[in-house]
Each structure stands twice: as C-alpha cells, then as structure tokens.
TrEMBL record:
Source taxonomy: Bacteria, Pseudomonadati, Pseudomonadota, Gammaproteobacteria, Alteromonadales
InterPro entries: Nucleotide-diphossugar_trans
Top-level lineage group: Bacteria
Organism name: Neptunicella marina
Protein name: Glycosyltransferase family 2 protein
Length: 287
C-alpha cells in the first residue's frame, strides 16, 4: 500500500501534519512538491520519497510521478491526496477495507473514495447532477470522484492508463474516472467513510447560488478544459451540458463580482481561446 501527496505552496503545519499522519499508515509515501521552492518540511522517513518541480508540472504529471514510484515499489494500491485534505490515523486501512469489500461484490471497481465534507461549510458535499449507477449497502458506484482521497487498484492501472497530463490540473480526476469507465471499470464512494477537504480558495454567492472561488489562473484551466473535454466522446453528456450552460454565469460572476476583475477576465478569455483551439498543457507554455 502506498500514498501520493501533491503539494503547491502549502501551509507548512497542515502539510507536515498530513505527511506525519499518512506515512505511518502506508508502506511507501511519495511527496510531489510543485512549489517554486522546496517546502520546508521534515521528510526524514525511511518509507518516503520526495520530488521537487520548481516549474510546477501540474497535478496530473505530479500524480503520475507518484504512481510510477509506487508501481516500482511493488505497491498494490495507491492513495492520492491533496495538501488540504484531513485524514485520521485509521483512514488508509478503512478505505482499503472498503475497496476490498467493494471488489468482493463488484470486481469491476478500480477506485474508491470517501464522502467529502467541505471545510468551508462543514457540510457533506452532495453532487447536484451526478448519477448513482449502482447502490450497495456499503458503497455506491458513480460516474466520477475527486482525486484527493481516491484509492486506486494499481494492478489495473495498466489497462486504464495514467492521468492525462495535457489537462494539467482541472478535470484531471474526473477524466480519469470516465476513461476507466470506458474500459468497463467502476469507481465508487464509500458510504460510511468521510474526509474533510477544502474545495477552492473561498466561497461567494450570486443570485442565491453559492459557488467556489479559486485563484485567477485556475479560471484559465477551468474554461479551457471544459471546452477540451466536451469534445471527447466518453465524457458524460450531463457534464457537458451543465458546464457549457454554467460558463456564461461563471464568466459574468468572475468579471464583475470578484476582486482582480481584469486579471480574471484575461485568464478566462485566454482559456476560452485555447480551449477552442484545443491547446493543452501548461498556461506558461501557451502564453
């Protein structure tokens, strides 16, 4: 059993606590640091490997580095975690047991994640549109789960492929799930296991709807990757329709209702332009 933690300018105390908590629960831990400078953490552990990429290779490439390390270490499963997730000392074993149980009932389950509790609202995150494809007493199969808290069966990774590095960040987790489902695998959510996770940098409200607020550059990847993914045949139709319809609202809200309006507008316009032209990869490589 192994784990991958991806860092980007983390709050050091929180990142250190996560490393400490996870390292004692796994055989191998791979920390991928996309920060401009190496994060000043205590990483002196026999089962830990550390990679620093000052240029920020993106979350997909970072996860792929970690997954490759764990495959070389002969791990059978890999837990993916972001720096802003909170887990307890029993989380890894509990999630692994849930995957074993799910695979006993449905051998097509390749990955499982916990139910997510938003750190802003302290409430359970309930997808508005996502369909439950198969309901079991202990788990439910769904179309996609987020990457943080995702436990992957590495024995099947060769069949699904690694994460799509061309997307760089936004949509990476969902795209992999959809691709796995195209290969006749299932992804699941454990019904009775919870993880606190921070989604976005802040929250704002428009027309009675609360929405996530991220950094301006994330808007580039969000708008661009929506336009890239909507042209892939294995991406669910409901996801395409929902995101295309919401794009004008998000464009308006980020142009007129947030700080750094001009900067946000530039990133969104460039994201739309590159999305229409199918230009992927890093923002810095394109602009």
């Amino acid at each position: 059993m192994g784990a991958v933690i991806v860092l980007f300018n983390p709050f050091l105390a929180e990142a250190q606590a996560l490393v400490n908590k996870v390292s004692g629960q796994v055989d191998a831990l791979c920390v991928i640091d996309n920060s401009p400078r190496p994060s000043e953490l205590n990483l002196d552990r026999a089962n830990l490997s550390y990679h620093h990429f000052s240029s920020n290779i993106g979350i997909a490439a970072a996860q792929n580095v970690g997954l490759s390390d764990l495959c070389l270490a002969k791990c059978d499963r890999a837990l993916l975690l972001d720096q802003d997730s909170l887990v307890d000392e029993y989380f890894v074993k509990s999630l692994s047991d849930q995957l074993s149980s799910a695979q006993t009932d449905n051998k097509r389950v390749i990955a499982i994640g916990p139910r997510i509790v938003c750190s802003f609202s302290e409430k359970l995150v309930k997808p508005r549109v996502q369909k439950e494809l198969f309901v079991h007493e202990d788990f439910v199969c769904v179309t996609q789960i987020i990457s943080s808290g995702m436990l992957i069966d590495l024995h099947q990774l060769e069949l699904t492929g690694f994460k799509d590095e061309r997307l760089f960040i936004d949509g990476v987790d969902h795209e992999w799930c959809w691709r796995a489902r195209r290969k006749n695998f299932d992804v699941a959510i454990a019904n009775n296991l919870y993880m606190v996770h921070r989604l976005g940098d802040a929250r704002s409200k428009f027309a009675g709807i609360t929405y996530k607020v991220g950094s301006p550059i994330r808007l580039y990847y969000q708008f661009r990757n929506i336009l890239i993914l909507t042209r892939r045949d294995y991406v669910p139709l409901y996801w395409k329709i929902r995101n295309i319809l919401v794009m004008p609202i998000r464009f308006f809200a980020n142009t007129f209702l947030q700080n750094n309006k001009k900067e946000r507008l530039i990133f969104m316009v460039r994201g739309i332009w590159d999305g229409l032209r199918m230009r992927d990869g890093s923002y810095n490589d394109n602009w």
